[in-house]
Amino acid sequence: MTTRLSNATLMDLPEGVRVPGYDRAALTPGIVHIGLGNFHRAHQAWYLHRLMDTGAAHDWAIVGAGVRAPDAKQRERLLAQDCLTTLIELDPKGRSAEVTGAMIDFVPVEDGNGPLIERMADPAIRIVSLTVTEGGYFVTPDGGFDEGHVDIQHDAANPEAPRTAFGAMIAALKRRRDAGTGPFTCQSCDNLQGNGDVLKQTVLGLARLSDRDLAGWIETNCTFPNSMVDCIVPATGPSELQLVREFGIDDNAPVTHENFRQWVIEDRFCAGRPDWDRIGATFTDDVHDYEAMKIRLLNATHQVVANPGELLGCKTIADCMAHDAIHGLFRKVALDEIAPHVKPVPDMTPADYVDLIDSRYSNPEIRDTVRRVAFDGSSRHTGFLLPIIRDALGKGASLQGLALVEALWARMCAGTRVDGSEIEPNDPNWDRLSAAAAAAKDDPAAWLDQKWIYGDLAAEPRFAEPFTDALRQVWVDGPEAAIRAYLAD
């Protein structure tokens, strides 16, 4: 028997399920968060929930928001259970469940984003935060602002009825400026190095296309703190829905997560902030080294293991780590070809961090699918792996394994596993990638000629030559043989 999750039933949940210790009816909003996926609810919302449990931050509750059609479905699911979420920690030593309540509302999702703009214009809102994925910031391959994108052009021409989250933020800030109610902090919580700087580039770039005076006001008054966020949070599917029922809870939007979290944040908030550091977050003026360690050693190696895992039929990241060749690829590339380009941070060396990631990836309780991790490789390889390759080229360092990793991605995008089964499209640019992958089977240069991904790397023989050799070997001998040859070298 299960209990339907709601405010009214919190005290009826089974013994052992942790529930909010604060009066949710007394909470008032202070944050609008755009992108109410699993990661936000397991990470940023959890920190605020635990802070509220100490009796603090009750005027910082979260109002959820979204700008895509699927967000309307998420709004419906969460409002039906009073915006409560069950978090299930998947620790090999034992699972536990906790209901979090820091979120109190969800803005209607409408064309033109009128309700979202109105809510962000409310002076009570002092932070607007986002998790819109690494590829959602309209960044060109060289790191600039993509002002030619059709959605950006739409928002520049229709600033009062924008399509994008950034256009809605600008419209709300215009109302606040005109009303004299002040700015809000713009806070990215996505896996991007310098995510606050990237968000600032996008917001100011879009604002300048329609109102340069407003752009100047935003630049002067708003803050865009950089941050590093870390927690492995699988997608929710049938097994997760069944798992929450096993805890005696009827929750249509549960979240599973590992027993590890980290949040490192620049302390630059123009309108105040919650004291997240009381719950374990780190405020620092130097986020960059933390970001670089996490993005290069965790986000990059997720692709290192997921792409061959997909080719070899592994279902989860833990399955990949149980495969000795993929596990060996992870450790050799991470330690020999990525760690040399990563600085240590307080209490953590790059080698120690590789060991930590090894144990986290290997957690059999985390059903983090290879498909989820390999999704949107065109953004993730561009953002996480290619900068390391460029650093290696600049320093004359080894990149044989990184070239192999790119070859394995090219082979994956051909759309079949080694057993002949089909790999379903798994990238917003899948058609372009699969066409290039098919051509690259006979002519590896066809893959590197995708300048929208690789830029000028095709003209760099120290990368192009080992990539060509690796891709040919992957096609002739198979991915596993290619990996084992690299490990034996």
SSE blueprint:
Elements: E1 3-4, E2 29-34, H1 38-42, H2 44-53, E3 61-65, H3 69-79, E4 85-91, E5 94-100, E6 103-106, H4 114-121, E7 127-130, H5 150-157, H6 165-179, E8 185-188, H7 195-210, H8 212-221, E9 227-230, H9 238-246, E10 249-250, E11 255-257, E12 262-266, E13 282-284, H10 288-311, H11 317-322, H12 324-338, H13 350-361, H14 370-374, H15 377-395, H16 400-412, H17 430-440, H18 445-448, H19 451-454, H20 461-477, H21 479-488
Parallel strand pairs: 1-10, 2-3, 2-7, 3-6, 4-11, 7-8, 12-13
Antiparallel strand pairs: 4-5, 9-12
Helix pairs in contact: 4-6, 5-7, 6-7, 6-8, 7-8, 10-12, 10-13, 10-15, 10-16, 12-13, 12-21, 15-16, 16-20, 16-21, 20-21
CATH fold name of the largest domain, please? Rossmann fold
Given the C-alpha coordinates, what overall shape results?
A: globular
Please give the share of residues in helix: 40-55%
Task: Report the span from N to C terminus.
Answer: 57 Å
Give a description of the structure.
The protein folds into 2 domains: 3-284, NAD(P)-binding Rossmann-like Domain (Rossmann fold, 3-Layer(aba) Sandwich), CATH 3.40.50.720; 288-488, N-(1-d-carboxylethyl)-l-norvaline Dehydrogenase, domain 2, CATH 1.10.1040. Helix content is 47%, strand content 11%. The chain has helices spanning 38-42, 44-53, 69-79, 114-121, 150-157, 165-179, 195-210, 212-221, 238-246, 288-311, 317-322, 324-338, 350-361, 370-374, 377-395, 400-412, 430-440, 445-448, 451-454, 461-477, 479-488; strands at 3-4, 29-34, 61-65, 85-91, 94-100, 103-106, 127-130, 185-188, 227-230, 249-250, 255-257, 262-266, 282-284. The longest helix is centred in the middle third of the chain and has 24 residues, at 288-311. It is globular. The mean pLDDT is 96.
